[in-house]
Specification:
The chain has 541 residues and is of the alpha/beta class. The protein contains twelve helices and 20 strands. The strands form four sheets. Strands 1, 2, 3, 11, 12, 13, 14 and 20 form an eight-stranded mixed β-sheet that branches. A seven-stranded mixed β-sheet has the order 7-6-16-17-18-15-19, with helices on both faces. It has a three-stranded antiparallel β-sheet with strand order 4-10-5.
Length: 541
């Protein structure tokens, strides 16, 4: 597939331009084996690796395994090889782009109309700030946004081009191995048709080295590893805005230093976003409202509705809630073009697509012969767009550790590598996961104390220097330091204490000095209750 691109003045060296080497395999079905054909094979090869799921993580993993060990055999099983259609997983943070490069897939963003992302525009109470991504050796690092399905198809195309990957359209119904109450060692997988019934036929396939569970957020095998209940935090509701492209992404007013830019809406441009080619975060809605481009002509809107229960669309409550949230997030007097476009998109939407936002901490993998990876292992709130970053770095770290041994690992080596991987992955995963849950708690701000913390967070980010760039590093996945994250989070909390005691807070005002002191330190207690339990859960074995 080739998407016509709008060539902008800033993008000539960015990998969204150029030709993808595996484009010819984008729509190809010739390399995909149907279940009936797979079952009918008389001489089925012995597989070294089995990968369950060909989403972004599973496809990237299968490709890397196949290219690192060209003489190995990789089985990649996916229920549906058609282009997926999702409303999240459409923004890759800079650290995720780094992982993509380490996996040998740098050009995977080509030919899909992807758009570079430079940072975040954040608006709150009529004010706005700009949080750019970090710099490295004088180069400002960038993320990229895209249609989720197009990126997945490009990754799958890379897999289809490898002679030692067998791509099967089917469903893995069971992990085969030794078990008592729970499975203790996985030796392979049982493959059935994509739509299985009690009477469906199946094929047992051995995986001599490792089986990788990469079947995503709805993983049917996660309970083999972690049977704790899933925590539903909120729901994201998605819309699409259509618009004309712009010629430049530079909408800065202020000093040229990247940490001190002040973003303002650009009047009279074709693209209604306050700052195109950036993530746009509007904090005045019912929950945070995110806007980012999927192409030069399309922008995704994700409006967060806090709480485990979603308002009903049948009786109009959902649309009414969204209308109120979008109108507050992008008020007409500040963003007339964006406001009108949002209202029109909501009116034109035949149905509102929603997805639950969950938090599932990772669990140490005690099952020999198998590794859970990506959203099958752990899930964070999608607010920060860090899911693919964590998953792709999991793949990069794991395959590098495996490759250090030079040959296909035996059971003992695989066990040792898995233990190393669990520790190596933890700092980045912890920072991204904890930040996503903590920021959502602040940005959704359901109490006065959380509202005060949100106000303090905005003021903290507006200070520039490391007050801006370190949080940018956490958000982008480029600064995987849990201790530094804790330092900055409590710095925000103490700023909230100051704002409350001094009487300068707008979010939480009024009261005598004694009450302000009491409520300030109660807010500090609330802040600790936001972040410390999440960190504790992430640190559990």
């Amino acid at each position: 597939m080739t998407v016509p691109e709008v060539v902008l003045d800033e993008n000539h060296s960015w990998p969204t331009h150029g030709t993808y080497e595996y484009t010819a395999y984008y729509h190809s079905r010739q390399e995909v084996v149907g279940f009936d054909e797979f079952r009918a094979q008389r001489e089925r090869p012995a597989y070294d690796f089995a990968v369950i799921g060909a989403g972004p993580i599973g496809a990237a993993l299968a490709y890397k395994l196949a290219t690192d060990w060209p003489h190995s055999r990789v089985l990649l099983v996916e229920k549906n090889w058609a282009e997926p259609d999702r409303i999240v997983g459409e923004l890759m943070q800079p650290a995720g782009c780094q992982a993509i490069e380490r996996l040998g897939l740098r050009t995977v963003f080509s030919d899909i109309g992807a758009v570079p992302v430079h940072g975040y525009y954040i608006s709150y109470r009529g004010q706005s700030i700009y949080v750019p991504y970090m710099q490295r050796a004088g180069e400002q690092l960038r993320g990229v946004s895209f249609h989720h399905g197009r990126l997945v198809m490009n990754l799958r195309a890379a897999c289809k081009a490898q002679a030692n990957i067998t791509c099967v359209e089917g469903s893995v119904t069971e992990l085969l191995g030794d078990r008592a109450k729970r499975i203790a060692r996985v030796r392979g997988v049982r493959v059935g048709p994509s739509r299985t019934t009690a009477d469906s036929a199946s094929v047992d396939v051995d995986a001599r080295v490792l089986t990788f569970v990469c079947d995503g957020i709805t993983s049917q095998f996660r309970k083999q590893l972690n049977d704790r209940p899933v925590e539903m935090i909120s729901h994201f509701c998605g819309l699409v805005l259509e618009h004309e492209p712009v010629d430049s992404a530079t909408y800065f007013d202020g000093p040229t230093g990247t940490t001190e830019h002040v973003a303002r809406p650009a009047p009279g441009v074709a693209n209604p976003l306050p700052m195109p080619h950036n993530g746009n975060v509007m904090l005045d809605g019912v929950g945070p409202v995110l806007l980012y481009q999927m192409s030069e002509r399309e922008t995704r809107v994700l409006a967060d509705i806090p709480g485990a229960q979603l308002p009903s669309e049948a009786n109009g409550q959902l649309r009414a809630t969204l209308r109120a949230s979008l109108a507050r997030a992008a008020p007409k007097h500040l963003y007339p073009g964006l406001h009108a476009t949002l209202m029109q998109a909501l009116d034109d939407a035949r149905r509102i697509r929603c997805i639950g936002s969950k938090f599932i901490p990772a669990t140490s993998n005690s099952v020999d012969g198998a590794i859970w990876i990506g959203d099958a292992l752990n899930v964070r709130h999608p607010l920060t767009g860090g899911g693919m970053t964590v998953g792709l770095w999991d793949v990069a770290i794991l395959t590098e550790l495996l490759r250090q041994h030079g040959k296909l690992p035996d059971a003992q080596t695989a066990r040792h590598v898995k233990a190393q991987w669990q520790w190596r992955r933890r700092p980045r995963a912890l920072v991204v996961n904890v930040l996503s849950v903590a920021l959502h708690a602040l940005f959704a701000a359901e109490t006065k104390e959380l509202g005060l913390l949100r106000e303090a967070c905005f003021a903290y980010l507006a200070r520039g220097s490391y007050f801006t760039m370190h949080p940018s590093g956490f958000l982008s996945g480029l600064l995987p330091s849990p201790l530094l994250l804790i330092f900055h989070f409590f710095s925000v909390a103490f700023l909230a204490v100051y704002l409350r005691i001094s009487g300068s807070s707008v979010a939480y005002s009024g009261g005598s000095l004694a009450f302000r002191v009491y409520s300030a330190f109660y807010t500090l207690y609330i802040a600790a209750g936001v972040i410390l339990p999440v960190i504790w859960r992430e640190l559990q074995p």
